[in-house]
From TrEMBL:
Domain writeup: Consists of an N-terminal FAD-binding domain with a Rossman fold and a C-terminal substrate-binding domain.
Protein family (similarity comment): Belongs to the aromatic-ring hydroxylase family. TetX subfamily.
Description of how the protein assembles with itself and partners: Monomer.
Domain of life: Bacteria
InterPro entries named among the record's database cross-references: FAD-bd (IPR002938), FAD/NAD-bd_sf (IPR036188), TetX_monooxygenase (IPR043683)
Limits of the FAD-binding domain: 2-346
Binding site for FAD: D47, R103, D295
Entry GO CC: cytoplasm
One Pfam family here: FAD_binding_3
Binding site for NADPH: R40
The protein, known as: Flavin-dependent monooxygenase
C-alpha cells in the first residue's frame, strides 16, 4: 500500500506536491497554519518560467488553468537611470518564456484542483519529533497531533520540519524591501503609470533600487530595495506611515521626481519585508521518512527563482514517489540528489547583486548588460 503523505504548509510547493500525488493516486493531507485561503494577502506577481515552474504545472495537469490566469503584456520591462533616463524599454512580444500571474490566483487553481478536505486549515505545526523507523509526529498549536510515515516540510523560511534534518537557520541577507501600492494608477497616478509602463520597472543604484509591477487592472505594486542593517530599519517607525514613507524616500534624494513619487504617492502604508537566506548549497544527510521542498529546503535572496523552484520541487518529489511506490527512500533520495544542485545553482544569482556596482550611473547599464547576457544564454 502506498504511504499516505503528510505535508506541512499550503504554499505553492506543498500544493503542487499534493496535486501531483493526487493525479498519481497517492493520498496526501496538507496542514496549513492559516485559518482559510483568504486569511492573508498572497503577495504580488510571479513570472513562471518555462524551464521549471511551467514544467511543474504540466506535471500537475494544470496548464490550461495556468494559461487562463496569465496577465498579457506583463513581461514588458523598463530600466531607468536615477535621473529618469530610459535605458531599456522592452515590449512583451509573447515569446519571453516567463508569463506573469498573480500569486493568489496561482494558489487558487492549485487549491481548486485538490479533493475537498485535502487541506486542513488552522493547523499550525508547533513541534515535530521522530518516532523511529522513519515515522514522525507533528504537534499542532491546538494540541492535536498526527503521526506519519512520510513527512514533507513545505513550511517556508522558518520551517518546523527542517530541524529534523539540519541545524541551518536563515540569516539576514543585508537587504530588505519596503512595499506599497498605487491603485487606479492610470487615472489617479498617470505619471507613475506612464513611468512603469505595461509590465515591470527597475531603477537600480548601489545599495538601493526601485521596482514596480503592474498587477491586474491598473494597480502598481512598488518595492523599494535597500541594503541596510536591521538596526537601520528598526529605527524607522513603520507605525507612522507618513514618517516611514518620508524616511525611505530620503534615501532616494536627488532621483527623478517620477521615480520618488512611486514611494511618496503610495496608497497603502509602507510594509517592511526583510530578506533571509539559508547557506547556498544547503543540504542534509538522508533521514528516513522526511524531506523538504521550497524555502524550507533552500531559502535564498529574491532572484525570481524561489516560487519556480518550489513548484518544481513539489512536482519532482510527487513524480519520484509515484515512480517508486514500494520504496519511499529511493524516491526521497532521487528527489534530493536532483534538488540539491538545482537549488544551489539558482541561488548563485542574487537578484540584489547590482547593489555592488560602483556608481549610480553604471548600475542601470550593468543591469541591461546582465539581462541581455542572460537572454543570449537561454
Amino acid at each position: 500500500m502506498r504511504t499516505p503523505v503528510t505535508i506541512i504548509g499550503a504554499g505553492l510547493g506543498g500544493l503542487v506536491l499534493a496535486r501531483v500525488l493526487h493525479v498519481n493516486g497517492i493520498p496526501a493531507t496538507v496542514h496549513e497554519a492559516e485559518s482559510s485561503p483568504a486569511a492573508r494577502a498572497q503577495g504580488g506577481m510571479l513570472d513562471i518560467h518555462d524551464h521549471n515552474g511551467q514544467l511543474a504545472l504540466e506535471a500537475a495537469g494544470l496548464m490550461d488553468e495556468f494559461r487562463a490566469i496569465v496577465l498579457e503584456g506583463r513581461q514588458a520591462l523598463r530600466v531607468l537611470d536615477r535621473d529618469g533616463t530610459v535605458v531599456l524599454d522592452k515590449a512583451d512580444d509573447g515569446t519571453g518564456g516567463r508569463p506573469e500571474v498573480q500569486r493568489a490566483e496561482l494558489r487558487r487553481i492549485l487549491l481548486d484542483s485538490l479533493p475537498a478536505g485535502t487541506v486542513r486549515w488552522g493547523h499550525k505545526a508547533s513541534a515535530v519529533r521522530a518516532l523511529g523507523d522513519g515515522r514522525h509526529e507533528v504537534v499542532f498549536a491546538d494540541g492535536s497531533t498526527v503521526a506519519t510515515g512520510l513527512l514533507v516540510g513545505a513550511d517556508g523560511a522558518w520551517s518546523r520540519v527542517r530541524p529534523l534534518l539540519s541545524t541551518a537557520v536563515p540569516e539576514y541577507t543585508g537587504t530588505s524591501f519596503v512595499e506599497t501600492y498605487l491603485f487606479d494608477a492610470d487615472t489617479r497616478h498617470p505619471v507613475a503609470a506612464k513611468t512603469v509602463g505595461g509590465g515591470m520597472l527597475i531603477a537600480p543604484a548601489p545599495g538601493r533600487e526601485i521596482f514596480a509591477h503592474r498587477e491586474r487592472g491598473d494597480t502598481l505594486h512598488i518595492y523599494v530595495a535597500l541594503s541596510r542593517p536591521q538596526d537601520w530599519f528598526a529605527a524607522v517607525d513603520f507605525t507612522d506611515a507618513a514618517a516611514a514613507t518620508a524616511r525611505i524616500a530620503q534615501e532616494f534624494d536627488g532621483w527623478a521626481p517620477e521615480l520618488t513619487a512611486l514611494i511618496t504617492d503610495g496608497d497603502t502604508a509602507p510594509v517592511l519585508r526583510p530578506f533571509y537566506a539559508l547557506p547556498v548549497g544547503h543540504r542534509w544527510d538522508r533521514m528516513p521518512g522526511v524531506t523538504l521542498v521550497g524555502d524550507a529546503a533552500h531559502l535564498s535572496a529574491p532572484n525570481g527563482e524561489g516560487a519556480n523552484l518550489a513548484l518544481l520541487d513539489g512536482a519532482e518529489l510527487g513524480r519520484a514517489l509515484a515512480a517508486h511506490p514500494d520504496d519511499t527512500e529511493a524516491a526521497l533520495t532521487e528527489y534530493e540528489q536532483a534538488m540539491f544542485p538545482r537549488s544551489a545553482e539558482a541561488a548563485t544569482f542574487d537578484g540584489t547583486e547590482l547593489h555592488g556596482t560602483d556608481s549610480d550611473e553604471n548600475a542601470a547599464h550593468a543591469l541591461v548588460d546582465m539581462i541581455n547576457g542572460h537572454e543570449r544564454g537561454r
